[in-house]
Structure formats: structure tokens, C-alpha cells
Amino acid sequence: MSEDSQRNFRSVYYEKVGFRGVEEKKSLEILLKDDRLDIEKLCTFSQRFPLPSMYRILVWKVLLGILPPHQETHQEVMVHRKEQFYDIHHALQVMRFINDTTLQAEVYLHMHQLEMGKLSRSQTYTLEPEDELFLAIASTIEEIVDDEIDCYWVTRNFVHHLDTKFRDCYATMQKGFEHYLNLEDSRLVAHLKTCNALERLPYDFWFRKCFAGCLPASSLQRVWDKLVSGSCKILVFVAVEIMLTFKMKINALNTSESINEFLEKVPLDNTDPIVNKAIDLWHKHCGVPAHSV
């Protein structure tokens, strides 16, 4: 039996006895033993499988450029990241932009603004859309990342990742959403068009904020594994699956306003199945990336 056949056989066996993901975890551990981490293989792994929670932050930090591929430099680099964090944090305290009562997400936002040279001279200012995006992402990452230093750098680099890699994809994502939803349920699309709702769905909430504030972090982190590793299209299929999951409710609503109001506050008691089905849909329509350890 070939090595791949043995691995497939073991994967099926582990799934049957309740240890789904054991083989995937072992494969990731092999990748993480390399002195120089292979970014392409880590991306491919993250596209194919959910990252084990114990390794998620490390992989995110490497893929987002917070840590370099060379593992022997990780400790030294994080010392510098920590120093930067406290230098910026202290400067904001001295300028009285933050204090002990400032919400942590707002602290991270002001740190990012200061670092980028965009800190407002006024402490009372209207949030720009990019500020609201940062706060939404930061609030979700706070629930995923325990350490405040890691939380800041992951948020900062995640937002930068979205801006540099996916900025020009949003119009395409909206068209893709309509296309795939029509393939899965053309009657639902017809209903949305009848209600003049198709063009007014909460696309910014879904695609620009990446469902931050819409889905709980415990479910969303598996979607963001795909984003961090380079695919924004997963967001399209999350949106499609939300529509399919709640189509009976949506079909009972007759205005774009009522549909939007519902979709911005979807029930949170079954979001894991939504994410599972969205990932399955994504693989169904887009295929599964090749991966070898």
C-alpha cells in the first residue's frame, strides 16, 4: 500500500472512531518541524483543513508576516514586536488618547493609527469606514487570541492583508454570490429580485468586514483560516450558505429592509453547521488544493 493510500485509510478510520483531524494534525506538525517553514505548504494546508486551535495563532502569524519563515528568529522577532507594542501603547497614554477604561479594540485602533501616521489630533472624531472595519476585526480577534501583543499584531496585519490582497475583489464577490446562489436555489434569487433586495444585501458587512460581528468567533476562525491563507472566495460561500439555511425565513419577508435586518442579526445557535456546509460548497465549486507534506 502506498504512503498516500495508508494515510487515506488512517484518516477514514480515525473519523469513524471519532478522532477526525488526527492525521491532519500530524501533517501540520511535520510542516512546523522544518527550520524554514514552507509558506506555500502552510497555505495549502490551511486551504484544505481547519487549523488545530493549538497551532492556529502560530500559523496565522507566519502567513501574515508577523513572524518570518525561519524559526530560529521567532523569539528575537517577538521581542522586537513586544517592544514596539509597549512603545506605541505608552506614547498613547502620554498623549492621553487611551487610559485604563479604553476598550481594548479602540486601543489597538489608536495604536495602528499612530503607527501609520493617521492619528487624529482630536480625541472626538467620526470613525471612518476603515476604522469601523479595524474595530470589527479587532473585536473578533480578541475572542480568538489571548495575548494582547499577539492580538494587536494579528489584527493589524490581518487588516493589511485584506486591504492589499482583496481590495479589488469585492465587486467580483458580489457577482459570484449571485451566481452560486442561483446554482443552488434559483427560486430564492428570484424572490430576492422581486423584493428588490439582491442589490441591497449587507455585502459590506459580509465581504469587507468578513462576517465580523455577524458570526461568532468560534465559527468564524475556520473561515478566516482560508482568508489568511489567500482565499477571499470562502466569504461568498458563507453568504450563500446563510441564505440557504434561512431561506424559509427570507422567503417569508417581502421587503429589502426586512431581509437586511434579519441577515445582519442571524440566529447564532447553529453557525458551526453553516460554516461546515459553506466550506463544503467552496470545495464543491472551487475544488480542493493539492497538498503534500
UniProtKB/TrEMBL annotation:
Coiled coil: none annotated. SUPFAM superfamilies: Ypt/Rab-GAP domain of gyp1p. InterPro entries: Rab-GAP-TBC_dom, Rab-GAP_TBC_sf, TBC1D7, TBC1D7_dom2. GO terms for molecular function: GTPase activator activity. It is found in: Cytoplasm, Cytosol; Cytoplasmic vesicle; Lysosome membrane. One of its GO terms (biological process) is negative regulation of TOR signaling. Residues 50-231 form the Rab-GAP TBC domain. Keywords: Cytoplasm, Cytoplasmic vesicle, GTPase activation, Lysosome, Membrane. One of its GO terms (cellular component) is lysosomal membrane. It comes from the Eukaryota. Non-catalytic component of the TSC-TBC complex, a multiprotein complex that acts as a negative regulator of the canonical mTORC1 complex, an evolutionarily conserved central nutrient sensor that stimulates anabolic reactions and macromolecule biosynthesis to promote cellular biomass generation and growth. The TSC-TBC complex acts as a GTPase-activating protein (GAP) for the small GTPase RHEB, a direct activator of the protein kinase activity of mTORC1. PANTHER family: TBC1 DOMAIN FAMILY MEMBER 7 (PTHR13530). This is TBC1 domain family member 7. It comes from Pyxicephalus adspersus (African bullfrog).
